[in-house]
Known about the structure:
With about 180 residues, the chain is an alpha/beta fold. It has a single domain, classed as P-loop containing nucleotide triphosphate hydrolases (Rossmann fold), CATH 3.40.50. Helices cover about 40% and strands about 15% of the residues. The protein has helices spanning about 20-30, 45-50, 55-75, 90-95, 110-120, 130-140, 155-170; strands at about 10, 35, 80-85, 105-110, 150. It has a five-stranded parallel β-sheet with strand order 2-3-1-4-5, with helices on both faces. α1 packs across α7 (about 155-170).
Amino acid sequence: xxxxxxxxxxxxxxxxxxxxxxxxxxxxxxxxxxxxxxxxxxxxxxxxxxxxxxxxxxxxxxxxxxxxxxxxxxxxxxxxxxxxxxxxxxxxxxxxxxxxxxxxxxxxxxxxxxxxxxxxxxxxxxxxxxxxxxxxxxxxxxxxxxxxxxxxxxxxxxxxxxxxxxxxxxxxxxxxxxxxx
Length: 181
């Protein structure tokens, strides 16, 4: 990616995959504006999830449109974005692509047990561990025609970011770091 190229990246996946951490680091590396998708949820959605109730599609549409609007605003200023958003279904990703058709999706994934453990250990987040199963059930992996990369979150965050950058660069297999000094 050149310094002038505008790119829009959505860091997606179920809860506790590290979307915020990876998204922030990816934005720093790309010189892009970081947009925390959770910050754009209407309060009614946050309250619903905090109460342990999964969101419906109708709950999600206004949230997705808020993300689209933010991406369009930043893109109109000639700047790139890295947005965090679960983007669990193809239909949601289709909406997100309306802001930029070439949006790149970094699909962070991990095992249910790993992510459930992360959820139990984190503090201050509205998403309860009881909703993880519903997210796994809703998840539709990226289709072959979707611009994106699947990245395993079992590695350290820096390695996850490197794998995301490699995917964005079109490298299907991230190269291990050189051991040469």
